[in-house]
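Subject: Sanity check before I submit

Could someone independently write out the structure tokens for this chain? I want to compare against mine line by line before I put it in a report. The sequence has 318 residues.
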Amino acid sequence: MINILFLFLFYFQTIYTIPEHAHYFLDAKRIYNIEQTQQELFKLGFKKIYFTTQDNIKICGLFLDKSSSEKIQGTIIYIAGFYHGLKEGMASFYSLVIDQPYNVLLFDARGHNESEGDFLSYQGIKNYGQSEALDIIAAIKYIHSYNVTKKINPNIIIHGICSGAFNSIKALTQLSENACPECKAIQGIIFDSGWFRFEDVAKTTIYAETEKRFKKSWFWWATKPISFIIYQIYNLLFAQTHKAQPDIYESIQKINWPIFFVHCDNDPYVSIDPVKKFIKECNCKYYWWIPHNSHANYHMHNYQDYKNKLLEFFEAIT
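---
Independent answer below. Compare away.
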């Protein structure tokens, strides 16, 4: 009876510590209803914007400027992963700061949804990772220019998940190497469920995604052989090109901004081991190893836990 009471109190506390408008964005099924999620974001003040990359790809984003109603502390740019790669999907992360004094930019990765470019094609998958950093650079430049023009707090925080974290490091390396004026505005990076090279994630991602799709079907027994076949096809068509891309081990060590590493111990898509090894070797200050088996969505399981850690990092860097 006492255990039931404690469970009820925990549930009650969790529900009522989540801001009212955040509940919609924490429903994984609802946020990928793109049209409806956009409407919910529009209600909260988001505007649809476009910016163009250095290689002339038009990127579509949703931008929230709260500076007319409150004193903001900066702008958070959310960088989506390989799939789904959608601005609407990143609304779940926005829910963590929905009641905080930050402007927010969500955008579709190139080749996804309303952004131009190639993604789900042979060439799109083969060349993935070669140009995505340009999307992030363009997003940073857009926000920096906007903040200067509007005389808004210039601080920028980058929050990348999975391949979005990988591509963020590549983007920030390019900016710092060119001593771009935007560099002074960047305050820190969240590296959530990220990886350092394609070899770290290709096999585990294929096996995890196949299991996810087949484990509740009549073909659950064929999950491993199907995964094996898909992985061999990947090796035949894409592995050589992906392996030729430089990893980010050296780049990430050259970055001077604070990085907050977030990773679940039992992430089925991206092993935590390379990240832990890097942290140990480089004595990184900010990291959080989560005893959970999710990939880039722990915040949807434990909203307040993730939010507290996030705000602690923000307080430390701004």
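---
OP: Matches mine. For the report I'm noting this point. Strands lie at 47-52, 58-64, 75-79, 103-107, 156-161, 186-192, 259-264, 286-290.
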